[in-house]
Amino acid sequence: MHRMVAAVEHQNAGACDRWVIDPARGLVVARPAALMGILNTTPDSFSDGGRHLGVTAAVAAGVAMVQAGAEWLDIGGESSRPGAEPVTAVEETARVVPVIRALRAAGVSVPLSIDTTKAVVAKAALDAGASAVNDISAGGDPQMFPLVAAHGCPLVLMHMQGTPRTMQVAPTYGDVVAEVIAHLAERMRAAVAAGVAESAMLLDPGIGFGKSRDHNLTLLRALPRMNRELGRPLVLGISRKSFLTGVTGEALPAQERDAASHVVHALIAGECALLRVHDVAGAHAALRLRNAVTPDDLTGDQEGGIHAS
Hints:
Blueprint: E1 18-22, E2 27-30, E3 34-40, H1 55-68, E4 72-76, H2 89-105, E5 112-115, H3 119-128, E6 132-135, H4 144-151, E7 155-158, H5 176-193, E8 201-204, H6 213-221, H7 223-230, E9 235-236, H8 243-248, H9 258-268, E10 274-277, H10 280-293, H11 296-299, E11 305-308
Parallel strand pairs: 3-4, 3-10, 4-5, 5-6, 6-7, 7-8, 9-10
Antiparallel strand pairs: 1-2, 2-11
């Protein structure tokens, strides 16, 4: 596994970078990474589709993730697995809004992001108690940036080549790192032009979204460069993705890829602000071990995560 990200080295030794992404709510993210628990309310997500259908099951799962160490929950009502078919905004809203309301009613106070590409869904989720928008299309809906600007909430912008339905057919790049950086920088500029504060943005290189195994590994090795050139907190989602088995040589189903996932989580945590994970308890243990054995000069005060400013 060490060859996956052997070239990833923390470039800001002695400092733990922090970003105030929502001054009004005192929301701060920092490196090394905190955990963003994945809460899919879909029947067809690649790893946990169908497990959290219904408000009761979804809320129980969300509460369990927070108790296990998640400092953020990412709630989605439309699968973005390779080959996934889109769902209507009405259906997506019906899946996520009752869950967000119920999580808040249950006393869950961590940030909740709505994982959607549709502005109308994002608005309904924000009105129901969501804290942020996670848009894998990076503003594909022309109403998304104005909506986020009006709400003044944090925004995650992700790189994706193609759409979930087509992205893994034949992903092709001349220079995957340069192209991903350029795309994310352009989408940041577009969001700023629409009124979104640059300080509210987090960036995701989109591991597994229109990338081959080698593209994914190249991007993971280039995280220090992304930090230097983009200057924004990074969100990474490598949990249970198929490129892991392409490296290990084990044809494991998604639910059995946690061990490989957590090795990579530990390796890249110093370059990220948030790690999007399925197995929160396992990832939390991996990061505790990572912080215990990583020299202080690489992690600064080792107080990453999410804080009130």
